[in-house]
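Reply to thread "Modeling small-molecule complexes from scratch"

Following up on the discussion above, here's a worked example others can learn from. I took a protein sequence and the SMILES for adenosine-5'-triphosphate and predicted the complex. Inputs first:
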Amino acid sequence: MIKQSVQETEILKVDNLSWHADEREILSGIHFCLTKGEMLGIIGPNGAGKSSLLRCLYRYIKPSSGTITLFGDEITTLSAKEFAKRVAVVLQDTPHHFDLTTAQLVAIGLTPHKGPFDITTAKDREIITDALAKVGLTHKAGQTYEHLSGGEKQRALIARAIVQRPKLLILDEPTNHLDIRYQIQILELLRSLNISVITSIHDLNLASALCDQLLLLDAGKCISHGTPVEVLTEQRIGDVFGVCCKVEPHPQHANPQISYFYGYSSIREKQGGQDDCGHKA
Ligand SMILES: Nc1ncnc2c1ncn2[C@@H]1O[C@H](COP(=O)(O)OP(=O)(O)OP(=O)(O)O)[C@@H](O)[C@H]1O
């Protein structure tokens, strides 16, 4: 049972989270909160710790210290079924599902809501059909999941997560295999679900356009956390990613729009990242 008093305000609270592997500190001192319907983007360079942070959140790895509270409950205290009712996860690398059709794969999302002897009802089929339509895969419902393209598989996994009806959706690089139309469509769909979403994302412009909050990681530490306007400054992007860029308000939504400059990354490296790339002159 979800604690009512907490439900109205805070979905997730991460407090002083750290994780060590092979005696190396991969994540340290991470704090953040997420409220209902908010979308948090985890950004940062390769190896920054984005996937590791998500793995802690969906209980794949156990933090070395700190707490993760979901609707007021420490996540380790929840049964697998209760956790699955609250949290759905969409990962880049998923196990093979050789014999399943796309619709059967999506139907797996119903599992936390079913008893061992429950049968699939007309209402269940409606939920599955609706989720397939939302991700643009109605025409692939009967096709073998393994025969879908990379982007179609990704959308099928998102449909499975929608069917699971979670309170919190965690995604690791959901736009990786998608063409630009589906990148935008899927992120807009995630926003429209009115659930809290945490997603790692490499494309800073997409993150800026669609996330309420961004958490910028570098070497396992939170470098900045706040709105896209607060986090995505030229100086910070230059320092963390080692690139030169210009940040301007996007003509439609006014959040930061980043234009990258080419031929400066080696200059930054030689100068210890201290130059301003010369593009302002
Ligand atoms: N199980 C593990 N054992 C040891 N080191 C690990 C383990 N998992 C991750 N790491 C290390 O932790 C660091 C962060 O990895 P992680 O995959 O979280 O980064 P990331 O930000 O998601 O990177 P990318 O953008 O490249 O996907 C890397 O240096 C990685 O090698």
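What I'd highlight from this example: The radius of gyration is 20 Å. The pocket of adenosine-5'-triphosphate is lined by residues 21-22, 26, 44, 46-52 (CB under 6 Å). Questions welcome below.
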